[in-house]
Design a protein that fits this description.
The protein is of the alpha/beta class. The chain folds into two domains: 119 residues, Alpha-Beta Complex (Aldehyde Oxidoreductase, domain 3), CATH 3.90.1170; 148 residues, Aldolase class I (TIM Barrel, Alpha-Beta Barrel), CATH 3.20.20.70. The protein is 42% helix and 19% strand. The chain is built from eleven helices and twelve strands. The strands form three sheets. It has a six-stranded parallel sheet with strand order 6-11-10-9-8-7. It has a four-stranded antiparallel sheet with strand order 3-5-1-12, with helices on one face. A two-stranded antiparallel ribbon has the order 2-4. α9 links the parallel β9 and β10. The two termini are 34 Å apart.
Length: 284
């Protein structure tokens, strides 16, 4: 079960989308074409392809903010797997508000459902193995909370939400700090008791050095081929969490999971995933 985000987090994003779309003069097409402003009409969100749904509340708000008289009745919930032709939700109310809010609602619903769908496919691929799927901070500015929500709707886990969640020492940190030992020791000295430390390593030699220094909770095994990942997992031997990342695709993820890593993180889940094809169909 996916716990929905509260409207107070979603409304600013939907409001910004509507204001962007309405521009300086409002919906010229709808205002010119639709004369009757009171007679209610009905329309349904329908999936055009199989997938996993996320973002129904964003769609609901896109109409509620346009006209509070519009009702939104969901027929599935976020996290639901649906087939092509499934009716996802029905909206009813004044035509002008429905037409003006349609594109923003579809944009959010299709985008988030695309993330949830791609995530669910990866989760299913690695189901026989120990590894869990997680996202990264490679999200679109302003959309992180809802994109990470969509990852959860697809059955996976979230990585850091921001720079203040945990300490993640990457290659540039190491270069500027002077190496693994000084970077990790400074991190340990400054981390609060609830803050975890993750270290990115590219080679088995770096991994061995990180293990020798100690105090690392998670090792990010960056761009390692499956054979090297397997060696890395054996080297860690349960002393820390292992995370594989870098260039992983649906075609290669099973080999990565077979290495025994604990986590597999993928940036493309949030920054380049394809939308799920969803339409809004008029109901006579």
């Amino acid at each position: 079960m996916i716990h929905p985000l509260p409207d107070i987090m979603l409304e600013p994003l939907v409001r910004a989308g509507l204001l962007e779309d309405l521009g300086r003069a409002g919906d010229l097409t709808t205002d010119a074409v639709i004369i009757d402003t009171n007679t209610p009409v009905r329309a349904a969100f329908v999936a055009r392809q199989d997938g996993v749904i996320a973002g129904l509340d964003m769609a609901r708000l896109s109409f509620a903010l346009m006209d509070p008289r519009i009702t939104f009745e969901p027929h599935v919930s976020d996290g639901s797997a649906v087939t092509a032709g499934t009716r996802l939700a029905t909206v009813a109310g004044p035509a002008r508000g429905i037409l003006s809010g349609e594109r923003v609602g579809l944009n959010f619903l299709s985008h988030l459902s695309g993330i949830a769908t791609a995530t669910a496919q990866l989760v299913e691929l690695v189901r026989p193995y120990h590894a869990r799927i997680t996202c990264t901070r490679k999200t679109m500015p302003g959309l992180r909370a809802i994109q990470k929500y969509a990852v959860r709707a697809g059955g996976a886990n979230n990585h850091r939400f921001g720079l203040d969640d945990a300490i993640l020492i990457k290659d540039n940190h190491l270069a500027f700090a002077g190496g693994i030992r000084p970077a990790v020791e400074r991190a340990r000295a400054n981390a609060g008791h609830l803050v975890r430390i993750e270290l990115e390593v590219d080679t088995l030699e770096q991994l061995a050095e990180g293990l020798e220094v100690g105090g690392v909770d998670v090792f990010l095994l960056d761009n390692m081929p499956p054979d090297m990942l397997r060696e890395a997992v054996q080297l860690v031997n349960g002393r820390a969490v292992t995370e594989a990342s870098g260039g992983i695709t649906p075609e290669t993820i099973i080999a990565v999971a077979q290495s025994g890593v604990d986590l597999i993180s993928l940036g493309w889940l949030t920054h380049t995933v394809r939308v799920l094809d969803i339409g809004l169909d008029y109901q006579a």
